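User: Can you help me understand a structure? I only have the sequence.
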Amino acid sequence: MRLKVLLASLLLASIAHAQPYPRIGAYIGVRTPCQPLARPDGSVDSAMCQKLARWPRVVVDVSQLLMQPNVAPTLRHYRPDIEIIPYFLTTHWYLPDTFVTQPWDKTFAAYWHNNLKATGGIENSWPKGLQVNIARKATADSMASLAVWGARRLGASSWFADYWWPEVKTMGIGSNELNDQVRIANLRAWASKMRRELGPGFRIYGNGPGAEKTGLDGTMIEGFPGTLAPFSKAITQKDGDWLKSEHTPGSWGDPRLVRFMLGTACMTGATVTYGLQEVTTPYQAELWFPEYAVDPQGRPDPTGKYVGWLGQPLGVWVRLASGLYVRFFEHGVVLLNPTGALITHDFVYARWKAIGSTVPVRVVSVPGTDALFLWGE
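Assistant: Let's start by predicting it. Here is the structure, written out as C-alpha cells:
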C-alpha cells in the first residue's frame, strides 16, 4: 500500500513538472468568510468560482478556505485538476502576544496565534511590525504541524508560505549570521516534515529573502518589472518559481504588462500571477487576457479550457543579436523584447499566425518591453 501511495505521489509531481505553457495562476485575496467566492449569507457564489476555476493553480488563504468549506469543492467541480494552494503568513504576524483569542474561535488563524504565543515565537520589538522567530525550533515545529493539519483538511497537494524569510540580515534588521543559519535549518525541516507527512509529491512555494535556500519547490518575485524584480532577475527563474505583477485598482489591467510578464515566464517555466492580492474591483477572477488560453483554431478562449495552449517547449530560449528572446513550443512561438525599442524579426518563411488570425506571417515587430505570442503547428 505504501508503494502505491509513493508511486501516486511521484506521478503527481511529474505531471506538475510537465505542466504545459504558458503557466498561469491566481494569487487572490478574499474577505471573511471567503468573499467574494462566497456570499455574506455563507452560500457559494458559483459564477465567481467558475471564473476563478479558469486558472489551473489558485492560491487562497487557508483560514478562509476552512471557514467556507464549500468553496474548494466548487472550484474542483468546475476544474477537476485544479491545484488549490493554501496560503498563510510564515515569518510575519499581525497580532501582539498580548492578544487573547476567544474560546469559540476555532479558526486556523486562532490556532496559529495560540501556537505562536505558547512557544514564545512572537517578537514585538521589530521595527517593521511583529515578526515570528523562526530561529526558535519549538515555534517552527508547531507551525509546521499546523500547516500539515490545514493542508490535510483541504486535501491540498501544495502550500504557499508568504514571507518564508530565513535571511533576516538582508533586510537591514539584524546581523546575526548564526540565527540566519538556524532559520534556514528550521525552515528546511518544516518543508521536509510536510513532504514526509503529506507525500513526496507535495509541493511548497515561498516568498522572501533566502527562501530558495530552504529546499522549496519554487519562490515568488513580486513587483515585476521594477527595481526589486528587474528583468535580469526574472529571466533566471526556474520551473516552480512564480512571477507576479499588479494591475491598477479599478482598471481592467495592462495587456502589455501581462504580455511582457507572460513572455518572460514562458522563457523560464515560471507561473505567472497578475492582479492585486487584495480584494478590489474588478476582482482578479474577472481579469482574463487573450494569451492565457487559445483554442486549436487560434481563437482566444475565455473559458480557460485551453490553458496551456502552447504545450511543451521544443528547446531553451535563444537570445538573438537584435536583443529579442525567442522560444519555440509544440503549438506556437513566443518572442520577448526586454529592450526599450521596437524590434522587427524575419522568420524567413511564413508559418506562424497572430492570435485570432489564420494568416501566416513572415515579418513581425515586437514593441519594447512587450512580447508577441504566435500560434501554429
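Now, to help you interpret it: The radius of gyration is 22 Å. The mean pLDDT is 91. Let me know which part you'd like to focus on.
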